[in-house]
Amino acid sequence: MLSTIVFLPLAAAAVLAAVPAIRPAAARWIWVTVSVAELVLIGVLWANYETPGANELAFEEQMPWIPGVGSSYHVGVDGLSLPLLAMTAVVFLACAVYAFRDNDRPRAQAALFLFLQGVSLGVFVAADLILFFVFFDLSIVGMYFVIAGWGHGSSARSALKFFLYTFLGSLSLLLGFIGLYVASTPHTFDIPELVAATPLDGNPLAGGLVLAAILVGLAVKTPTVPFHTWLPPAHTDAPATGSAVLAAVLLKMGTYGFVRIAMPMLPEAWRAWAWVIVAVGVVSVLYGAFVALAQTNLKRMIAYTSVNHMGYIVLALGAVGLVVDDAAQARSVAVTGAVTQMVSHGLITAALFLLAGVMQKRAGTYDMGSYGGLAGPAPRYAALFAIGAFASLGLPGFSGFIAEFQIFAGSVAVAPVTAIALLGILVTAALFLRALQRVFTGPTEGRSAGFADVRAEELWSVVPLLGLSVLIGVLPRVLLDVLGPASAALVGLVGR
Amino acid sequence: MSGMQMRPELLLPEIIVFVGGLVVLLGGSFLPRDRQWIARVLAAAVLLGATGAATLAMAGSTQAAFSGTFAVDIATNAARVIAAFTTLLVLGVAAGEIGGSARESDTYALLLFATTGVMVLAGATDLVVLIVGFLLASIPLYGIVGLGGGAAGAEAALKTYLLGALSGILLMLGVTVLYALAGSTDYAALREALPAAPGAAVGAGVLGVLAGLLFKAGGAPLHFWVPDAAQGAGVTAATFLTTVPKVGAMVAVYRLVAMLPDGDGTWLLIAALLATASMLLGNLAAYWQADPRRLLGWSTVSQVGFLLVPVAAAGRSDLALPSLLFYLAAYAVTNVAAFAVTAALPRHRELGSYRGLARSRPGLALALLVALLGLVGTPPLGVFVGKLTTASAAWDGGYTWLALMVMLNSALSLFYYLRWFGPVFAHPAEDSPGFPPRGGTAAWPAATAGVAATVSLALGILAGLLWAALDGPLLP
Fold first, then answer.
1. Chain B residues near residue A164 by CB distance under 8 angstroms
2. Which listed residue, A394, A447, B158, B447, has the most CB atoms within 10 A of its CB?
3. What is the torsional sign of CA B230, B233, B238, B241?
4. Which alpha helices (H) appear in B287-425, and where do they start and end?
5. Hey, of A178, A185, A227, which one would you mutate to test binding to chain B, going by the most B CBs within 10 A of its CB?
6. B378 reaches A (C-beta below 8 A)
7. Per-domain boundaries in chain B
8. Residue from A138, A173, A174 whose CB has the most chain B CBs within 10 Å, to mutate
């Protein structure tokens, strides 16, 4: 089942790439059909999902790959990965719909996005460090080609920076994996086995260094301050669908690595360095918010709010390591909030980037100063953007509120000082409101004149994303029933 | 005792390739110019036969031939298969470059002789046999480099020859010193005698031998000939000399270091330092190269560094030998794929001229992408498994910093490979001269690039099978 979910888009991508005779229209239909099939498969998976025991996985599949070095093809899901799988499938389907009328090499574009979808899903189901790394690295290669091939502006340069920076990060991650492998007896790369063994407990120096290597690798991908500098140019020059996938899915690989690898495998080191992680989270929250406030380029602004939103996740996960003996409930809430934030940020930011892409398509600029009174000529566009902005700033009724409320409820209970990051929410609210005011209100002027309202494919790619955000905001139980037991299990593993 | 017998049947792959070389040489001189392809078919059949014989030998038990001077173990058999198969791929490159030319069959004969030498180098467990392997692998090489013709080819040949002669002398000097110290050139005897010999003298002898082998491998500090030869010589010569000799030389280096008295691990540290030097030097020098073949030449210098990493873990990690052999196999096919792409586009000698290749020749662009991403170490390609396991071996053997160097240098190398394949997928330039259509004589190297890239991918995906075949002991 899981293998089908991972390899179906990869196989479709291979066919699309290998057969030049496929017409553009056929390529677009294949893309949408496969994305729908993926969503259905993951829906079936969710319907049949039963919470596995601690450090166990559902729908497990295992097959020897390189037994000589203790690596196998091992996949499985639990409450931490299942919501991310679903979010990934939704975001990729939205991109397939959004790109339905693109005329720039549709066959290659469809192949590339299906490839990215397969490897992204692969990252979230991998239960072997090397398998995880394979998919993690291939996602970088795929995104490089998306930015370089379909981007605008100085996209070649941004793609290069993205590739070099995140590749360096991935090698740091690999180094950490090798450290875990060498420390384990018998040597293995299997994730559940390493979680059970916690090979570096009792060795603070080596544990700290391996954690540092893994953290740097994941922090580049997340990204947190000070490893975020690749993100704004990559987002600004990427195509709308590329930005959506990059922000919604690829960034989550970093934070997912925290909960899947760093925390359960190196609990002792995680607790020892928890304050550093919390500090990085708080700095990312505040820095991302303030720098976003200073932007005049709308897409760049959204990119910096990603740094801010990912900061909340890092903050919450760091807080989990601060105390061990009590407040298990609060720490579990923090983890739940962090994973909810991963899903929520994925849905909302994907919607915002797709909407920003409409600006580029219509008027060729993201500069907020070039617009004014856009609500007049494009009321539906303005409404969608306003909903996205309110969702992103954490208004109750949207998923962002559920996520950030739990993050702060959990974190502040453990460490009251983390309340300082609440300032980030305030700044984010201010910057989104200011952006709405600048671009959409007042008399219609500048590039707003003649701005055509959203078309069907734009509408139907964005509406489901925002609708799901509302669904989670109103009925969080759908998500929390799956997440809760997994969060409690993770808190137990970190407390060992 | 079997070790004391001649047992020439154990050297079947070497005999096949050498005799095949003689037949190609003699037969080629009777073939008319337009029938020289017969020599190529013959050489290909010979190499296929040797690959088959070596694969069969792999299934057999570990044995010693020629009174213990030649080991037929997993390392030798792996080197035989890799060397013969890679030379077979080189024939595909050659078919495009020199098919129908005056020197065609001579080149094939020289390739076969040099391949025999590489196999002998890999199996030698006696310093005198090592010298024989070195000379047999080197002398045809000078000829192959020089046959390319032109001023650049002549300069490359001269440089290769001078440095080869120098390192050959150092090798023989080292052997002389070690023989004087131990009273024998046999590895088994050296292992017993060297711990009692004066350390400085042993050091001088071993360094001499290492120098000779590093020249063959093209590693720092004896790498100067590599970029010139890769750029100046014909593409057949460049592909061969940056790939096949490394197979024999690296196995020989491993055997040498594994034979030395372990003691305080000085030799392992030297191997680690040499590895670092090659990786760094090759990477930094490759940075601003404009000629794809010169860039590849420097890249192979850095790859020797990666290949030296498991040597630093010899005897300390079970991963060391299999990871070296795996890396050799993956590197050989990946490197051939990259060179074969340059052979299919002989007039494109600037990185910038590859701009837009993906539009005109998507297959060739894909092969180049696989080859270059492979050399970087992107999963799931073969070299990734090589880098992963060699770095693991180094860490397992106590050299954590060397594993760090592997990762850092992989990241460094990405930049210059990106300078090459970035433009490939960009919009074609307006004044671009364009690319030759498919077919013609360049179809051979293009097909070779495809085959080599596919094998490079297959090695990564089927890594478990290959690893199981390579996981065995070295003959003591």
1. 411, 414-415, 418
2. A394
3. negative
4. 292-308, 320-344, 357-360, 362-376, 382-396, 400-424
5. A178
6. yes
7. 1-163+230-249, 286-476
8. A174
Separation CA A430–CA A424 (nearest Å): 10
Place of tokens 């490839």: A115
In angstroms, rounded to a whole number, what is the distance separating the alpha carbons of residues A487 and A489? 5
What are the pLDDT digits (tens) for A34-47? 999 999 999 999 99
CB-based contact A163 B385, cutoff 8 Å: no
Could you tell me if A266 and A182 are in contact, meaning their C-beta atoms sit under 8 angstroms apart? Answer: no
Q: How far is CA A299 from CA A233, A293, B389, in A?
A: 10, 12, 42
Burial B205-221 (b: 16+ CB within 10 A, else e): bbbbbbbbbbbbbbbbe
> Is B319 in contact with A130 (Cβ distance < 8 A)?
no
- Which pTM was predicted? 0.94
The alpha-carbon gap from B4 to the nearest alpha carbon of chain A, in Å, equals 34
Q: Is B379 on the interface with A (CB under 8 A)?
A: yes
Q: Cis before residue A264, ω within 30 degrees of 0?
A: no
Tokens of A31: 């893309």
Mean residue pLDDT across chain B = 91
Q: Assess contact for B111 and B140: CB atoms under 8 A.
A: yes
- B374 neighbourhood in chain A, CB within 8 Å: none
Q: Which of A223, A249, A232, A226 is nearest to A157 (CA)?
A: A232
Distance, in angstroms, between A242 CA and closest chain B CA?
17
Which pLDDT does position B2 carry in this prediction? 43
Distance from CA of A171 to the nearest CA of B (A): 6
Mean pLDDT on A431-460: 91
Our CA-based measurement puts residue A363 at a distance from the nearest CA of chain B, in whole angstroms, of 23
Q: Between chains, do B464 and A187 touch, taking CB under 8 Å as contact? A: no
ipTM value of the model? 0.92
- Give me the residue spans of the domains in chain A: 1-266, 273-496
Please judge whether B425 and A133 are an interchain contact, meaning their C-beta atoms are less than 8 angstroms apart.
Answer: no
Q: Name the one residue in this structure whose structure tokens are 């595909």.
A: B92
pLDDT digits (tens, 9 = 90+) for B391-440: 999 999 999 999 999 999 999 999 999 999 888 888 877 777 788 888 78
| Contact at CB, B408 and A69, closer than 8 angstroms | no
Closest residue in chain B to residue A138, using alpha carbons only: B379
Of A66, A141, A160, the CB nearest to B467: A66
Query: What are the DSSP calls for B139-185, one per residue?
Result: HHHHHHHHHT-HHHHHHHHHHHHHHHHHHHHHHHHHHHHHHHHHS--
Per-residue tokens: A463:
């509406």
Indicate the residue type of A408.
F
Q: How far is CA B60 from CA B3, B69, B71, in A?
A: 16, 19, 13
Give the DSSP H/E element, type plus range, for residue A66.
strand A58-66
